[in-house]
Amino acid sequence: MPEPINEEGPGDPGQIMMRISDEQWRAIIHNDPAYDHKFFYAVKSTGIFCRPSCKSRPPRKENVRIYGNAKEALEARFRPCKRCKPTGERLPDHEWAVQITRCIEMNYMEPLTLNILADMCHGSPYHLQRTFKRVMGITPTEYIQRQRTARAIEYLIHTEKAIHEIAVNVGIANTPYFITLFKKSTGHTPAEYRHKHRIKQNGG
Ligand SMILES: [Zn+2]
């Protein structure tokens, strides 16, 4: 697991939430509508909350937080799912785009394809791509790349990690590919970037 640069996220300790019971967990993985008015569940790794019946990919159990009502989940800084609309309101495209950017920021260190992202953000890949591009002006893939480059720069400047470690830490297991992408974004290889920064810092 990569070291988190910024641990802050929704649903942190100290906020109102309930422990997940086996019964609730079963309701979530079976998308059971009988539980829809009994609780809501939020997923810490995506920042999104749903009704139990939501037909989404089953989350990792340790990332699930349970709330008695939508207001509590909102207060814990989770955002309503586009698909199951747990607040009963349609999610505006702008808010969905914000939700997608948050999801990318929390998961850039994982393998993140358009399909995986669409799954996490509860929409079709086509719809996600179109909506994101229209609102943000860039594609989700470009946004992921920017995020990874920005994080890689932080690692290059603030740590002594090797280039291949940094590549893994920003979600790209293939080091040559990481170097190619980094150079495309910044005009320098990661090693050059680090070297140039160090020279500048030492007043040279
Ligand atoms: Zn949902």
Question: Helix share of residues?
Answer: 40-55%
Determine the CATH topology of the domain at 142-201. Arc Repressor Mutant, subunit A
Largest sheet: 4 strands, mixed
Strand-pairing-aware structural class: alpha+beta
> What's the CATH architecture of the domain at 142-201?
Orthogonal Bundle
CA(first)-CA(last) distance: 36 Å
Low-confidence stretches: 1-8
Q: What characteristic shape results from the CA principal axes?
A: elongated
Strands side by side in the biggest sheet: 3-1-2-4
| The top level CATH class name of the domain at 142-201 | Mainly Alpha
> What is the string of helix and strand elements?
HEEEHEHHHHHHH
What's the total helix number? 9
> Going by CATH, what is the homologous superfamily of the domain at 142-201?
Homeodomain-like
User: What compounds sit in this structure?
Assistant: zinc ion
Radius of gyration: 19 Å
**Average pLDDT score:** 90
* Strand proportion: 5-15%
Assembly state of the chains shown: single chain
- Would you count the extended β strands for me? 4
